[in-house]
Amino acid sequence: MTTFKLYLAPLRGFTDYIYRNTFSGHFNGFDGALAPFIPTVTADRFKPSHLKDVLPENNSTLPIVPQIISNQPDDFINLAVRLFDLGYATVNWNLGCPFPMVAKKKRGSGLLPYPEYINDFLEKTVSSIPNRLSIKTRLGRRQINEIFKLMPIFNQYPLEEIIIHPRTGKQMYDGKTDLDTFQQCLDISVHRVVYNGDITDLKTFQDISDRFADIDGWMIGRGAVTNPFLPAIIKAGTDDIPHKVEKFRQFYEELFEQYRRGFSGPGHLLNRMKGFWTYFSRSFQNSRKIAKKVHRTQKLHRYLEIVDRFFREEAQWNE
Ligand SMILES: Cc1cc2nc3c(=O)[nH]c(=O)nc-3n(C[C@H](O)[C@H](O)[C@H](O)COP(=O)(O)O)c2cc1C
């Protein structure tokens, strides 16, 4: 029996409620998801549509924790209270987003070089919000040792958990994860730590979970969007799932249909699908060919022909 928990990582532009619900109708293995971040705005600019992705009626299939990106304690508190009123006992603070547009404004990983600011933010928010707080972070914005000033601060607050993606913001999503520094964070933390980063197959998971035997929470993003069977395979400890292409196709077709209904025009729909195929294609042999063809398409009807033909004639799962 497995005792660990698996969580779907937030991928803004991918793992929204439509994806999460469709995923849950076709695949198993995740115990919950962290929803992609909601940016804070001042109270007078707040719109109910900001909460659409996390409304309880849109999230009946997979339990979620909403995530907030902010450097303004008052706006954070305001949003956390709204989320509490929707039923969310825990909210997550994004301290990891690496995108320069975000980080330059001292949000996401852009806050990591400022431990005093973070301490101040936590002092103001933790005691004022009705929810528990969890944090998702990287090792630093530019340098891995930024985290060593932050872990002692995190230790002073009653946090729910800390999710660590062991890269710097500067690395974006490439280069090696730093497992030695992750180990050091584990040694320092008084909180539950969840590992996140580059779990792409069963072997990787087994190696990393052998190394960090005390960890009981794992978060997977790109690996699960690429191969949606992965969480179930990890939970089972073995990969004996038959007919993957057919099962994947059924999932894909429902996903397409749900986005077709949810999006306002073919351009949006096509862009969203192109994004998905960047990941989906990696699960198939000869992945570059289908990825290229999809990305070149400008017309939805042409896209549909390409994908239909791919599934009928070419698709072979990359075991
Ligand atoms: C397109 C994209 C969007 C992302 N959006 C978010 C987000 O909204 N909030 C967040 O905390 N992390 C976000 N991340 C980071 C992922 O949650 C995760 O930390 C990262 O991809 C590493 O995990 P993985 O190797 O399992 O994908 C995003 C990553 C990508 C590639």
CATH homologous superfamily descriptor of the largest domain: Aldolase class I
CATH class of the largest domain: Alpha Beta
- Helical/strand content category: alpha/beta
Number of beta strands = 8
Strand content: 15-25%
What does this structure look like?
There is one protein chain. The chain has 319 residues and is of the alpha/beta class. The chain has 2 domains: 5-236, Alpha-Beta Barrel (TIM Barrel); 244-314. The chain has helices spanning 17-26, 73-85, 100-103, 115-126, 146-155, 179-188, 202-211, 222-226, 230-236, 244-262, 266-280, 287-296, 300-314, and strands at residues 5-8, 32-39, 64-69, 90-95, 132-140, 161-168, 193-196, 217-220. Helix 1 runs antiparallel to helix 10 (244-262), helix 2 packs across helix 4 and helix 11 (266-280) packs antiparallel against helix 12. It is globular and about 60 Å long. The mean pLDDT is 97. The site of flavin mononucleotide (FMN) has 22 residues, from strand 2 and helix 8.
Descriptors:
single chain; 319 residues; alpha/beta; TIM Barrel; 2 domains; 8-stranded parallel barrel; 13 helices; 44% helix; binds flavin mononucleotide
Draw up the topology in text:
Layout: E1 5-8, H1 17-26, E2 32-39, E3 64-69, H2 73-85, E4 90-95, H3 100-103, H4 115-126, E5 132-140, H5 146-155, E6 161-168, H6 179-188, E7 193-196, H7 202-211, E8 217-220, H8 222-226, H9 230-236, H10 244-262, H11 266-280, H12 287-296, H13 300-314
Helix pairs in contact: 1-10, 2-4, 11-12
The structure holds flavin mononucleotide.
